[in-house]
């Protein structure tokens, strides 16, 4: 059973990002990519726990894998939108599959704000996060 590493709440005004992926290593990679940005990154590997975390956190952005254990990314996205109708978060969908049809579904049917293919491009993920959180975020330094 996958564990859920949840960052402690930080009340410092940084925008919250909820990252959901069934792969613990991918969550570590995403957190490391986002570390230079002034954001609070919360990672969850279990989609059911992600719904609970979203209730607590009220994230401004959700980054989720389209392929998850227990439920699909589509099902999770629908559940999150139902829970967060008053202030729906922006959404980045991640997938190991090449774009095309899946990208069209994610953006045009599911209403995702961005679709990124794995393996992730570090700069592209940071750019999309900055764009979706309304403008450049300080801390966009070149990756190591």
Topology:
Blueprint: E1 16-20, H1 24-34, E2 40-44, H2 47-57, E3 61-65, H3 73-83, E4 90-95, H4 101-109, E5 114-117, H5 122-132
Parallel strand pairs: 1-2, 1-3, 3-4, 4-5
Helix pairs in contact: 2-3
3D structure, described in words:
The protein is of the alpha/beta class and about 140 residues long. It has a domain at about 45-120 and about 130-135: 3-Layer(aba) Sandwich (Rossmann fold), CATH 3.40.50. Helix content is about 35%, strand content about 15%. The chain contains five helices and five strands, in the order βαβαβαβαβα. The chain has helices spanning about 25-35, 45-55, 75-85, 100-110, 120-130, and strands at about 15-20, 40-45, 60-65, 90-95, 115. A five-stranded parallel β-sheet has the order 2-1-3-4-5, with helices on both faces. β4 (about 90-95), α4 (about 100-110) and β5 form a beta-alpha-beta unit. α2 (about 45-55) runs parallel beside α3. Mean pLDDT is about 80; it is low at about 1-10 and about 140-144.
